[in-house]
Specification:
Elements: H1 5-15, H2 33-48, E1 52-55, E2 61-65, E3 74-80, H3 93-108, E4 117-122, H4 137-142, H5 148-153, H6 162-169, H7 175-178, E5 185-193, H8 198-201, E6 206-212, E7 214-223, E8 227-228, H9 239-255, E9 261-271, E10 277-278, E11 281-290, H10 293-297, H11 301-316, E12 319-326, E13 337-338, H12 341-354, E14 358-363, H13 368-372, E15 377-383, H14 400-417
Parallel strand pairs: 3-4, 3-5, 5-15, 6-14
Antiparallel strand pairs: 1-2, 2-4, 6-13, 6-15, 7-11, 7-12, 8-10, 9-11
Helix pairs in contact: 1-3, 1-14, 3-14, 9-11, 12-14
């Protein structure tokens, strides 16, 4: 029992045609006509294999295959099919298509599963569409951590709030209807392209994820006083000087954690941004990624940031602010999202049996599995990203045969987990 790589390729290439920016990568944003076209294609493919198709209160698409056990929790498999602006054809889609192909193979072989199986295809994983704090929407809605405030306030590049975009898409969001009791999900499984160079560089066919990094995002603000460039140095309250001091100190602190955490100020907005005037206001964006639970348990990253901001105020007389966008980790400040290690070991044996090289990995990128792991047993399979591991750009590439191998591992794991 094996997956069909030609069908995988056809699915990926077909989905790539539902594209806002032909000739400039693939753009399929949440709640757009391209999203709707992709969804219609996926529904038709699910109906061909007899899945019971339905959507929840946030437009997440499901295809259910009942099992022998009545009222048993399901094995859920899938990923997302939305993209960032001018992306590649593989991020998210590879996992969605691999899961769809697994369901096809089980149907064609009349596989008898005890636990029900549910294919999940999500259309709002990318935070790009409505901002970095708004990603993994479908999984957050399922697990009850999405808020109505976000729907009313976060806007896309067209100026629509998420609520307005959903309504234009034909969905009246219902967060209560979208919420899922975690007890109804036995396992959550997601295949994804690596979005990094490790598997390609080391010539390894399958990555088995042990944990995903915790992610924290913050906005920092520095309020100085504007003045002409002739203002005496002793009289200035330069917001940019204060921000620069903070950045240097913050970088030094983050380096003390070694390989357990990373952090940076990656974006600055300076007002006025001119060589003729002393900056009166600077806004920066911080991103922190944590790779061990211990580094989160033993350190309060919010306090680290606040203490450094207070240093700036004391040293330069500049008022500062901190806005917490997402605390390490989201939704709970508990650190990295840990995968089910028993299943990691199962997949190692599956890879050995299939003759695939494999590697246990830890990863810093965010996925829906990051959310699900806080509530249900979760596992991720990575397949190599070529071209140096780039993603979210037209140069993103994964060989179809790489996806085939990852999908075969997923198939065998699903077979194992769906039998009592």
């Amino acid at each position: 029992m094996k997956v069909d790589v030609k069908r995988i390729q056809n699915d990926i290439e077909t989905l790539a045609t539902f594209n806002e920016t032909p000739g400039c990568g693939v753009t399929r944003s949440s709640y757009t006509k391209e999203d709707k076209m992709a969804k219609e294609y996926l529904i038709s493919e699910m109906e061909k294999i007899g899945l019971t198709v339905y959507e929840d209160g946030m437009s997440t698409l499901f295809g259910r295959r009942e099992g022998k056990l009545k009222d048993a929790p399901c094995v859920m498999l899938g990923s997302h099919y939305d993209t960032v602006y001018q992306a590649g054809a593989f991020d998210g889609v590879a996992g969605s298509v691999a899961a769809l192909e697994v369901m096809r193979v089980l149907h064609e072989n009349n596989f008898e599963n005890d636990y029900p199986l549910e294919l999940i295809l999500m259309n709002a994983e990318e935070g790009f569409t409505f901002g970095p704090s708004t990603g993994v929407t479908n999984s957050r809605a399922m697990m009850g951590t999405l808020t109505y405030h976000e729907l009313e306030t976060r806007k896309n590049r067209f100026g629509q709030t998420k609520l307005e975009a959903l309504r234009a898409y034909g969905v009246e969001p219902n967060l209560e209807k979208a919420k899922r009791d975690p007890k109804t999900i036995k396992n959550f499984l997601e295949l994804h392209v690596e979005q990094g160079p490790v598997l390609d560089r080391e010539n390894i066919e399958v990555g088995l994820i042990k944990y995903l990094a915790g992610i924290g995002r913050y906005t920092i603000k520095f309020h100085g006083k504007t003045a002409d460039s002739t203002e005496l140095m002793s009289k200035r309250k330069d917001a940019l000087v204060g921000a620069a001091y903070f950045i240097e100190k913050f970088n030094a602190v983050m380096r003390t954690f070694g390989d357990d955490a990373t952090g940076m100020v990656g974006q600055l907005n300076i007002v006025p941004n001119s060589n003729q005037f002393v900056p009166e206001y600077v806004e920066g964006k911080i991103e922190i990624r944590t790779f061990t639970k211990e580094v989160v348990d033993n350190n309060d990253f919010n306090k680290i940031i606040i203490d450094l901001l207070n240093e700036v105020t004391e040293k330069y007389g500049i008022q500062t602010e901190l806005e917490e966008i997402r605390r390490v980790n989201y939704p709970n400040p508990t650190g990295p999202s840990i995968m089910d290690y028993e299943n990691v070991e199962k997949m190692e044996k599956i890879c050995d049996g299939l003759g695939y090289s494999h590697k246990q990995m830890n990863q810093g990128t965010g996925h829906d599995s990051m959310i699900m792991a806080d509530f249900v047993d979760t596992n991720m399979i990575y397949v190599p990203s070529r071209n140096g591991g780039v993603s979210h750009c037209p140069e993103e590439w994964t060989e179809y045969t790489d996806i085939e191998k990852g999908a075969n591992v997923l198939l065998e794991l699903v077979k194992d987990l769906s039998i009592k």
